[in-house]
Design brief:
Blueprint lengths: L1 H10 L17 H83 L3 H11 L30
Length: about 160
């Protein structure tokens, strides 16, 4: 048993018979030199890496700022579009109400017209009559939308 205790104290691990030691407790000498070399190399490269990191950080910040500005402009434009769409909708409702009011007014006017009374007034009070066959004359205006009268129309 004393031999086993000396083994425990010597390696700081328990070793039973032919079982192998746990080598993860102590790094091998090659690993130690490798990590030292890595640290030495990293110290020289540290400035270059920090410059790359700063450049990358600036790039990410620039892209983020551009995206933020684009998003803000998009939301602003969308808000204006929504306001204009609501304004158009309100104007269409107003137009529909005015059109309905005009149609109702036109119907009221047309229902209150007494065509017989108008005919009696025109023929009896003003002496107007329908034109006869020989009284209507037509002429060509020359293709224009209107005619200017410089002389009397021949009778």
């Amino acid at each position: 048993m004393t031999e086993e205790r000396s083994r425990i104290n010597r390696y700081n691990t328990y070793q039973d018979g032919s079982a192998a030691r746990d080598l993860s407790v102590m790094p091998l000498p090659e690993e130690r030199t490798h990590t030292v070399r890595r640290r030495i190399v990293r110290k020289g490269v540290h400035k270059e890496e920090s410059r790359k990191n700063i450049k990358m950080l600036m790039l990410v910040l620039g892209v983020s700022a551009v995206l933020f500005i684009l998003c803000a402009q998009y939301l602003g434009a969308r808000g204006i579009y929504s306001e204009k769409a609501l304004e158009v909708e309100n104007l269409q409702k107003e137009l529909k109400e005015i059109t309905m009011g005009n149609d109702e007014m036109e119907d009221d006017i047309n229902t209150n017209i007494d065509y017989k009374q108008i005919y009696d007034t025109v023929t009896n009070d003003y002496g107007m009559v329908y034109p006869g066959d020989g009284q209507i004359r037509t002429y060509d205006a020359g293709g224009e939308g209107y005619a200017r009268q410089y002389k009397d129309i021949p009778g």
